[in-house]
Amino acid sequence: MFETLKKIAFERVGGTEEELRALGILADEIRKRGLEPKLEPFEVKTFRAGKGTVELAGDPPVGFDVNPVGLSGSCDITGRAQYIEPAKLDYARCEPGCIVLLPPHLNYDIYRNLVRLKVAGFLLVHNPGKTPGFPIIRHAFIEKFGKIPGAVISYEGGRKIISRKDAVVRLHTEQEEFVGTSHNLLAVIPGENEDEEIILGAHADSVASSPGAVDNGSGCVELLGLLGHFAKNKPVRTLRFCFFGSEELGLLGSREYVRAHESELGKVRLMINLDLGGDIFGENRVIITGSNELTNYIDSRNKLRGMGLRVTRGIYSSDNMPFARAGIPAISFGRSGLGASMGHSADDDIRNVNEASLRSMANIALAFAGEMADAEVFPFERKVPDDIKDEIEKYFRERSGDGA
Ligand SMILES: [Zn+2]
Q1: I need a labelling partner for 305 at 20 to 30 A (CA). Which of 21, 92, 152, 203 fits?
Q2: pLDDT in tens, 185-205
Q3: How far is the CA of 316 from the centre of ligand 1 (A)?
Q4: Same domain as 312, residue 221
């Protein structure tokens, strides 16, 4: 597993050549295990990590390097700097044309308020102690509200700006944006029972500037491990393996899969998602976007066998979501810890991953997937309960502006 992870641990943003190169490496691995992979293309709005600077006017002027927020365009703007507390956003005021500083997470409501406030631009202040990355503005927000230029600034830079009274800053960013072709890489192991299927998935793309070892090269090589096992041990139910593209651009690959394969989803009893793994100083966890029954089963199994899984029921921001939204119970295996906390930055490299951690997560996922694949009668209803459905809709509204 570790050898394959090394091969794909390079920046592979959705819709770029690098993403396709990583999928090519995974496709070769699928062929080595005796299956024929298939690539399904889809268009995405994507970008290359750009460059930017902020100059703080004064005597002496001070300059900082910043990372343009992906898909936020390029700009050269000057305005008064102001920090806005997220909890006050709905009624905050600032002078039009100001440049707002915010904590590092953009969602629909925050973006909507930036538009309402007529800001010229925004600076996301990065968490201290981690290399600033390149978050994106969801394309859906831009389509709805238009583009506001923004960048990520270090904690130190943000602090210096806000410490100066009536600070005026000049924000200059340059980035290349383009329509690219992203892909889902698929492979199928037909079962004896053709009426029931299980989807197993992991996203293959990374965020800009990150080698994406934990997030989610790890899930990809774990998924390959499962594929190799079932290629040799024929399951009762049909298993569909999906290496999704463009998860980091807004779950675009899994959304595309659900859209393109809608007529086949009635057969799918369960979706198993692998996102984040291999973390040396971590612990294995599972999040069940489904019923209490399924959750209790996994939790009891966990305790009986001393698997050391942290079990939670709820939503999880990954490729499980579009499936759960389509009414398919979805569970996400992953490993959280110190290495996973480097996710979405240049620090997410293979130094934070070891083979033993990869295997421990893969073995748990394999044992569970095996039981579900071979059960005499599938033990759970194909149903997502109403309380979880509400959470799912809220998630898609906040993250993607769906139905807003
Ligand atoms: Zn991920």
Answers
A1: 203
A2: 999 999 999 899 999 999 999
A3: 10
A4: yes
